[in-house]
Amino acid sequence: MSDPKVDQQVYDLYDEYCHGRIDRREFFRRAAAMTIGGVSALAMAQALMPRYALAQTISFTDARMKGLYVEYPSPGGTSGTMRGYLATPTGTGPFPAVLVIHENRGLNPYIEDVARRAAVAGFLALAPDGLAPVGGYPGNDDAGRELQAKLDQAKLRQDMVNSARYLKAHPQSTRKLGAVGFCWGGGMVNHLAVTLGSDLGAGVPFYGAAPAAEDMARVKAPLLIHYAEVDERINALWPAYEAALKASGTPYQAHFYPGTQHGFHNNSTPRYDEAAARLAWERTIAFFKQHLG
């Protein structure tokens, strides 16, 4: 899905759109007003829209795993009940568990596919849908982004904490829990590391917001931190985050992937970088195997 012809100015504009600072109409309006190489950048902007049907890597019916939707209690969350996509490896469990946390638009097909990838690697994977209490992922990212932005963010975070606890206690879980998340979900992995303490066995945030420095002493899990090289907003947080990691003694590894954009792991848009995404995922699975068994 990568497209080297997309200009960096359009990538930057798309980042504003993805993070809710401008809406879809304004994104396309500004892109149409840009002239790059003597032509309008509108076609570049249109190329960045996600194409989930083309991005699936593990089928829903793959014999190596079984996927189903589950509901579970979420006290203190948005509605008191949550729903998520649970992918279980074939074979005899229990299995080490991995929570897969979506971006700022609910449980879209890309994140479900990531849960299946974790399952075929041998992990009991749960991808919660933060939009479940308000009807679930609506089928498109624009509506999903709007819904998620309107939620009580403290309650949404509690829904993710409750999802982690549900997964850890699941009958098919070894009670060893990891978490991986992307963008908003990456920041949520850091939040879980602070909130769960030793109940989290390993955390892998992809280009996520850093936790507050004063909270780092509460982090007990080792962290594997993935960053895009071209991601000014998130990368600006790194120096303070790194200092806090060192000061707290938190075990961590951090990787910056050359030439990549924010969202490089998401294979549904041209921001995807196949080589970097593959390497980051291989490192992620190896990290979980090392710390979760």
Radius of gyration, in angstroms, nearest whole number:
18 Å
* Distance N to C terminus: 33 Å
Instruction: Report the average pLDDT across residues.
Output: 92
Q: Strand percentage, roughly?
A: 15-25%
Kindly provide the name of the CATH class of the largest domain: Alpha Beta
Please tally the β strands and state the result.
10
CATH superfamily of the largest domain: Alpha/Beta hydrolase fold, catalytic domain
Name of the CATH architecture of the largest domain:
3-Layer(aba) Sandwich
CATH fold field value of the largest domain: Rossmann fold
Q: What characteristic shape results from the CA principal axes?
A: globular
Instruction: Name the poorly predicted regions.
Output: none
Strand order of the largest sheet: 3-4-6-5-7-8-9-10
Q: How many distinct folded domains?
A: 2
Q: What profile does the largest beta sheet have?
A: 8 strands, mixed
Tally of helical segments: 10
Roughly how much helix do the residues carry, as a percent range? 25-40%
Question: By helix and strand content, what is the structural category?
Answer: alpha/beta
Order of helices and strands: HHEEHEEEHEHHEHEEHHEH
